[in-house]
Write a structure and sequence with these properties.
Blueprint lengths: L2 H13 L32 E8 H4 L3 H6 L5 E2 L3 E2 H5 L7 E9 L11 E6 L3 H14 L4 E6 L2 E6 L7 E4 L5 E4 L1 H11 L10 H7 L8 E6 L2 H8 L1 H6 L5 E9 L4 E9 L2 H26 L7 E6 L2 E8 L1 H17 L43
């Protein structure tokens, strides 16, 4: 992976975060709270690196959201959920919460925990999950854990596990983190609501949006991912935390906040973002049918950078549908227009590494980058 791919890919990861949804401490014998009164962050354990919450009802209020959350879904190797379960249980999802815990050094891949909040029938959903496991050739094993029923495939030594509580939520994760999530819902460990760094990041965006995400970026994680040399040279190494909020109705508004350690670092980061937007204009027009970069406003806010994209709902839906088609069917043919390479910043970091044009055939790589 070269540096410009790293820069572009990580910025997209920060912004898309893709695309996604309280220090309570009670005794195990304490009564469980009313299931549907839980807030999304109350089902996620404290100490996560990434937190995402999504309001599915508000997403469904947009044309694109209705398409993406329509009933009648199929799962690979399983078939239509309505045939398997009698109805589509995903239509009962009201809110979704996702967490990526901090990765221990040397871990092969990040873990994720996903929680779906809504009015779920525990027994019906348990039968549905068990049928899905059997249809894939597995052996479902239900196990009571706290106020939940956990269901795993006994034929799989590793992999995801699901836990269901009467009335919700439904939890999905690796076995170890799943138990942390269960303990969090059952008030045996603190929740993500009380994490001060995440709360500080959330205050920088609109927490009442349909989707809100916060990411505390550990430099050690970046070094582990790309190596110390690229981590030091990449402008994205200046980012200490990121927040995102996305509104879908009545208009589409995406707000990304990138937090740096100082105002000088934020100023350099702002230059990088603006340079990247200039490079992204042509690929965006080719891929999405519209240059969304002309609708982006950027500004410096003390030691952070604010990036706001505002589009009318029809344009946003059309661009998103083109993006989905692009992911499914591949890149469009390349254009002949060259993409300029920005000059390096005063710090020696490239203000924005070259953005590769979509290609239908191999070509030589862009030149002019100051980084290997």
């Amino acid at each position: 992976m070269n540096t410009h791919q790293l820069n572009v890919g990580m910025l997209i990861a920060i912004a898309g975060a893709a695309v996604a949804i309280f220090a309570l401490n009670a005794k195990p014998s304490a009564p469980t709270p009313e299931p549907n009164r839980l807030r999304p962050l109350e089902v996620l354990p404290s100490g996560a690196a990434l937190l995402v919450t999504a309001d599915m009802k508000r997403l469904q209020a947009s044309a694109l959201g209705r398409q993406l959350t329509a009933s009648g879904r199929e799962l690979p190797g399983i078939g239509r959920l309505t045939d398997l379960c009698g109805d589509d249980p995903t239509v009962k999802i009201e809110r979704v919460a996702l967490a990526m815990p901090k990765r221990p050094p040397g871990a092969s891949a990040p873990q994720f925990g996903i929680a779906a909040l809504g009015s779920f029938d525990q027994q019906q959903l348990q039968r549905c999950v068990s049928r899905a496991i059997v249809k894939r050739g597995g052996n479902p094993v239900p196990t009571p854990i706290g106020s939940f029923i956990s269901i795993r495939d006994a034929e799989q030594l590793a992999g995801g596990e699901i836990a269901i509580r009467a009335g919700g939520p439904v939890l999905l994760s690796e076995p170890g983190y799943l138990r942390q999530m269960i303990d969090t819902v059952d008030r045996r460990r603190p929740t993500a609501v009380g994490d001060p760094l995440h709360q500080a990041l959330r205050r920088g965006v609109d927490v009442n949006s349909a989707v809100v995400a916060t990411w505390i970026i550990d430099k050690a994680w970046l070094v582990e991912m790309v190596g110390p040399r690229l981590a030091e040279q990449s402008t994205l190494g200046l980012i200490r935390g990121a927040a995102l909020s996305m509104q879908v109705a009545p208009t589409f508004r995406l707000h990304v906040l990138l937090g740096a350690a100082s105002e000088d670092d934020a100023t350099e980061l702002l230059g990088f973002v603006r340079g990247l937007l200039k490079e992204f204009a042509l690929p965006a027009r080719l891929a999405l049918g519209v240059d969304v970069t002309t609708s982006v406003n950027t500004k410096l806010a003390k030691s952070s950078v604010d990036i706001v994209l505002a589009l009318d709902s029809a344009t946003a839906a059309s661009a998103a549908e083109r993006a989905i088609d692009l992911i499914t069917n591949g890149l469009p043919p390349a254009a002949d227009e060259p993409i300029p390479t920005p000059a390096p910043s005063a710090s020696g970091r490239a203000s924005a590494a070259p953005m590769p044009r979509p290609k239908s055939a191999p070509s030589s790589a862009p030149t002019g980058s100051t980084r290997p």
